[in-house]
Design brief:
This protein is mainly α. It is 51% helix and 0% strand. The protein has 2 domains: 43 residues; 32 residues, no CATH class. The longest helix has 15 residues. The chain is elongated, with a radius of gyration of 19 Å.
Length: 89
């Protein structure tokens, strides 16, 4: 039929094709923003924002936690690391 569709079916096609759940969830969130008239590009983008198809993206707090060697921290460094993690949230 001529004309546009009444909604987007791409996410459902992606689900049927086996795309990972986090990718589909992000697509749904972006679609809600677009349908609500919000600009998706309003937030600054970085290369880390790109989702991979098969590996889940780590939250910045998890990445920072993985980099910390708790046995090598002084009490002051541990408090500083905790404050940094809180700020990342």
């Amino acid at each position: 039929m001529p004309g546009g569709a009444d909604r987007s079916y791409g996410i459902e096609v992606g689900r049927l094709a086996g795309l990972p759940v986090p990718v589909l969830a992000r697509a749904r969130a972006v679609l809600r923003l677009l349908e609500g008239g919000h600009l998706v590009g309003a937030l600054p983008a970085s290369p880390d924002d790109q989702l991979t198809l098969f590996a889940p993206a780590l939250h910045p707090v998890l990445e920072r936690l993985k980099a910390i060697d708790p046995d090598g921290l002084t009490p002051r460094q541990a408090l500083s690391a905790l404050a940094e993690l809180r700020d990342l949230l």
